[in-house]
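Q: Start with the shorter request: fold the first protein.
A: Done. Sequence, then structure:
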Amino acid sequence: MVLRDASGVVADSLNYGGLVDPWAAEGDQAASGARLSGCYVPAPGSMFDPWSTVVTTVATNTSAGRFPDGADSDSNCSDFLTQAVATLSAPSPERATNIKVTSMEGFRPGQAILIDSGANLENAVIATVGTAGATTLSASAGVGATVLATANVTGFSKGQTISIDDGANSETAVVSTTRSRGSATITLTAPLAHAHASGEQISGSGIGLKTPLTRTHNNGTQVSDNVPTPGAPNQYQGKNH
């Protein structure tokens, strides 16, 4: 969207998602990042690369909003924020007080979040923020093993403390490396102390909730923070501006 004066000179512009001509992008091109062509409002949940023909999936029911509301520094690199958004990496049953998600970015204690959509939508408030990820062993792992064959490694990262199995057979470990190409694996910094059967869960500590869930939510369900409110101050929390 471009605003011009009476002579046709561009007075202001709003470039959303990088999907318009780069010359309309508001902001210093040198500050927007290597190989980028100016500043734009990011499409929620996407990683747009104007030098690529591939655009990743955009998150649903999420928004970008001007923050703080009404401010304009003449740079879309800094004037807009997007909602924090992730998906459940394991099913969450009714009455659960902990959810496993693919990413912790943008989430913080005390924050109100939205889980799921439509008739299954519910609100929750975060009590604690831990680490991301939840998967299962795709093959058994014996005592002393340091490489775990897993269904996926989404959300796991080097240095992360993870939980393996449950009950009397549960143990914690620290991630050394992950591999997603070919057979997914998680390599540990120290050998396992217990044997674990194929299908047992591996997870980060997840997000703790202040009150139990009132509904069951499936693996892959979207989790997002407060929605920006047009015409009123945006509801983003925990930012210093």
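Q: Next, the second protein, separately.
A: Sequence, then structure:
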Amino acid sequence: MGIDRRGFVALGAGAALGWRTTPRGVTPRMRGVWLATVKNAEWPSKPGLPPAEQQAELRGWLDLAVRLRLNAVFLQVRPTADAFWPSPYEPWSQYLTGTQGRAPGYDPLGFAVVEAHRRGLQLHAWCNPYRVSLQPDPAALAPGHPARQHPEWVVRYGGQLWYDPGHPAARRHVVRAVTDAVARYPVDGLHFDDYFYPYPVAGQEFDDRATFAAYGKGRPDRAAWRRQNTELLIREVRTRTLALRPRAAFGVSPFGVWRNAATDPAGSRTSAGVQSYDDLYADTLGWGRRGLLDYLAPQLYWNIGFKPADYAVLTDWWARALRGTRTGLYPGEAAYRVGAPDAPAAWRDPAELTRHLELDRRYPGIGGNIFYDATALRADPLGAVSALVRKEYPYRLPAPVPGR
């Protein structure tokens, strides 16, 4: 798997599977889906299933991707400082067996890579970099967990545990832990979601004052120091991924708004309550412009015409902002909002998703889309997902994998 000069992702391990030739008139595009494991959101359906049942469930998800003419699965393999493979750095995930550190009896990531490539699908290892636990007690972690061995790395925040991005040793640990998946398996990419510094919680402070005092000397602006910390992580993961597996893509799916124009004239004409640059300390646009990523997949989980964060406004902004770079752009699509009772009225129109993809086709810099979540794709609310396959445009034909 590699990256062409337009930033598209190409499969390597499954290149001989029989449908690599692009059909006449079809442009290779990313057609991805996120498959979540945290809290057993999608796979495995519950912890403690026998290996054969877990494997059968995963095959079902991969078969669904094939039926929907998708070409990539972004499988969450490190949801909370744990692992879906035999990692030397972190314990087995509790979402496999119900007990963190207990082996599931097989290698889930190894199995997933083989099964995905057998079907002509890319398999990207999706990792959450800094989230340690969804609960606040370190004693509830597996014995020997790095967060228990190094409490100085950990911050309690929002009822959860987080590694402190400003602690150099914690950052080095994260780099080793996530790139171990790249070293061990022929994955088609390494993928981060939107969690760097955690989302703001009203009335709470992410308490990294001691870390800032120790490692932020000469930096009067703690916000700029935090952004430097997240960029260091990106740079180090990028460098190590290239060294370990040069043909593996590295990308991020950030919160969809970098900055509002009211905050920064270079920002988008939005009024979102969260801005990734200011609230998550992630200069995602800067990473794309500086060539630190192979692609960005901003989570544009709003409908066309939604005034605070209009999908059409944001796709236009991202496409223009990354113009002239080699960073691919794959907007994240909110399949989970289609037909949802608490979603704006636009999501009760089954054509909303189709309109998004049709809009994206107008921009040469947009190379495809990634859908969240897999459960919604399987449920096919309002027939919006199956419509993408039935219609001649955009998903009627099989998905050639973008390549060189």
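Q: Describe the second briefly.
A: Residues 1-26 have pLDDT under 50 and may be disordered. The longest strand covers residues 72-78.
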